[in-house]
């Protein structure tokens, strides 16, 4: 049973995040130390240097041969349910949007497993809770973060290609009007070849090449390879390498929250996305995610404390890294920042309430 000492441990783990957030906010709002361009540079540094080291550190220290596969299978099923619903919404409804689907997937799927999840689940369920939430974090980095990055790169490349094609088409039409001719009837083979919104395969090729160069991608893959080899032959990473990784990875959460504070200060209001979208994000994070996880848990046959851990970890607050990616790729960073901030604030009483309900339902 979770007690006041356990609650204090969780608050102790979360307070440094608030301090980093406040420092970032104050450095712009009151001290005027950073400009928007400098904020973008800080966020990019975090996205392509610090977070890859952070992901490598945790992935490289797991034992891939001792994972709880039913638990991870339930998590995979839950996220696949979200994906199926979003694909249907995007392609079969008038209001469907690829951009909003990516943001909704991030809100439903990426949670703060390490900073909030580890101390909270350890307090609730002991070493088993800590072990499972770390496994969830590793799979999140290996599979779902990479998938999110793929979708973000695809969306960026698709928008760029569409913009270039529209510009070329507009120039061709303008030339045709100036020449007093009809482009559709009198266009030359050269102009027609220029006129061809590239194929989906050519865009996918560009996306995969960019993703392969993304440090977040190969940091996860390198971490998995190291974990497989180290667990198989029982050897440890040299201290000189371990120290080099640690000095960068430890800055991950702090720099991310500081960057979020900068973003907040640059907005006209604290709730950057407005109340309706804030409630929408909270509903996806704390209601839709646990519901889909419950379905996945039933399909995977989870029971006992493993089932309870699965449901609570699905309701953890929003991943801090999701804001960093949203800002870097220019896709709804206001919604993600608000989800992280308010989600972290309300998560402790909400998750304790979930824990109490699950204990009563034993």
From TrEMBL:
Keyword ATP-binding: no
Subcellular location(s) per record: Membrane
Chief place of localization: membrane
Cellular component terms per the entry's GO annotation: endoplasmic reticulum; plasma membrane
Transmembrane intervals: 7-28, 69-90, 102-121, 133-152, 215-233, 245-265, 277-300, 338-357
InterPro entries registered for this protein in UniProt: Auxin_eff_plant, Auxin_Efflux_Carrier, Mem_transp_PIN-like
Keyword field: Auxin signaling pathway, Membrane, Transmembrane, Transmembrane helix, Transport
Membrane protein topology class: Multi-pass membrane protein
Protein's UniProt keywords contain Transport: yes
Domain of life of the native organism: Eukaryota
Any one GO molecular-function label of the UniProt entry: auxin efflux transmembrane transporter activity
GO BP: auxin polar transport; auxin-activated signaling pathway
Function: May act as a component of the auxin efflux carrier.
NCBIfam families named in the record: 2a69
Family in the record: Belongs to the auxin efflux carrier (TC 2.A.69.1) family.
Record protein name field: Auxin efflux carrier component
Organism: Coffea arabica (Arabian coffee)
Gene responsible for this protein: LOC113712046
